[in-house]
Design a protein that fits this description.
Elements (H helix, E strand, L loop, with lengths): L3 E6 L5 H12 L2 E4 H11 L2 H12 L5 H10 L8 E4 L5 H12 L4 E7 L5 H6 L1 E4 L5 E3 L19 E2 L6 H24 L3 E5 L4 H12 L1
Parallel strand pairs: 1-3, 1-4, 2-3, 4-8
Antiparallel strand pairs: 5-6, 5-7
Bound molecules: adenosine-5'-diphosphate (ADP) and zinc ion (ZN).
Amino acid sequence: MATQLILLGAPGSGKGTQAARLVSEMGYNHISTGDLLRNEIAKGSELGQKVQGIMTRGELVDDATVLELLNANCDLSSGSYIFDGFPRNIDQAKSLDEVVIKNANHTALYFDIDLDVLAQRLVNRRTCGDCGEIYNLISKTPKTEGVCDKCQGTNLNQRKDDNEESVKTRLGVFKSTIEPVLEYYESKGALKRVNASAPSEEVFKEVKNTVK
Ligand code: ADP
Ligand code: ZN
């Protein structure tokens, strides 16, 4: 079976952008726990109502809820997956192994970047509500203000948790949970690092070389 890819990195480190390119150019399936949770909120489901406040504040949803959602939405027999946003702590890393990955080949890719630059990236991030394309008001502006280059849609939205206070919480949570996760994959010989502060094109080249 082909390699399963686990993306590790702080909020704003570019995991989502790179995942989208890997999907379109290399045919991976993409699973983002953040997207799954936001879908539940958009649907107004019971689960969505439960997690809405937690996510807006930038805190973590409980492990069992996220694991269940993840497991219900991926089937490794249908090919290679990119796991984006999961695992976020060591318990989730172990659960991912036990429940989802099992004996499948896998690589964990760490998007290495100085955390101090991320707050600015995140508060300036906008996402096309129609096609999901990601923009940044400083480094990747749409050609026409307010209009998506890709689909011409005019819903360039700011995520509810991309405000200064929630961003601070998200980065704080990341700092306090990531080390044991990195050590876990390192000790299995499954960890690779990419320099995520390079321009997006270069990061993609590095990512591609890493997963080949
Ligand atoms: P980011 O990495 O930029 O914060 P995500 O879309 O990955 O964005 O996650 C957004 C929010 O969704 C998180 O702040 C958290 O509340 C929730 N979430 C996503 N994945 C997980 C997870 N694996 N465990 C717990 N909460 C999660
Ligand atoms: Zn669009």
